[in-house]
Every structure is written in C-alpha cells, then in structure tokens.
Amino acid sequence: MEEIVFDAVISSLPGALAAVTGALERLGVPGEAVQALELAVDEAVTNIMLHGYSSSECRIWISCGVEGGVVRVRIEDEGVPFDPTEAAEPDLEGDADERPIGGLGIHLIRRMTDELRYERAGGRNILVLEKIL
Length: 133
Known about the structure:
Layout: E1 2-7, H1 13-26, H2 31-52, E2 59-67, E3 70-77, H3 104-112, E4 115-121, E5 124-132
Antiparallel strand pairs: 1-2, 2-3, 3-5, 4-5
Helix pairs in contact: 1-2, 2-3
Protein name: ATP-binding protein
Organism: Methanofollis tationis
GO molecular function, one term: ATP binding
C-alpha cells in the first residue's frame, strides 16, 4: 500500500488529492473509479479538516491499495471520534433552501463507494473506502 501523509489544513488538500489520484493511477485503477474515490476522499478529508481537529498542527494519513479486484483507500486521523457510517441519511426531499445544512458529504461518500467501514483504534479514526473494480 502506498501511504500519503499531510497536514490537516485546507491548503494541503489539492496536493493530497493529487497524491491520492497518482497513487490510484499507479495501482492501475480505472479512471472512473479514480474519479469516484477522489471525490469521496475529498469529502472525507475536508470534513476531518473542518470538524475533526481544533488545532492546525495535525496530520492525516491516507493509504491506497488494490487486492482481489477491490481498491481500498484508508484514511486515518487523530481528531475527535466520528463514525460516518452511523450518520443518518440526509433529507433530499423538498427545496434545497428549506433542507437542513449538512450530511450531503457523507451521502456523497456512500454513493461513490461500494463499502464504507469505520473503526476507532489507537486514538485514531480509521475510515476505509472500497470500490469494486
């Protein structure tokens, strides 16, 4: 698995996403799956940066790998515990102006991946995104 480590600040996001895209392409992941995973990683990492840490001196670790026809992207952070698999589905009915704010990022992550797993271990949030090739 290829690992990417970066500071948990918004200015690091473009470089981190480029590194993830490059890692997935080197692993031979097809373009459509790369795009879906890049979007899911963007949402997950942005949420970590905005809501997981209270300090800017924090890191995020991402590793990418392919095994048995499944690509896995593992995202780790030491922020506040948060299990996105437990989040309720957002209300998508009615006008966008009238719906509550939030929840669409997790909804998007669920739609862009085939499997989403979470665990808290060693003081870290560990989110695993999987896409079947």
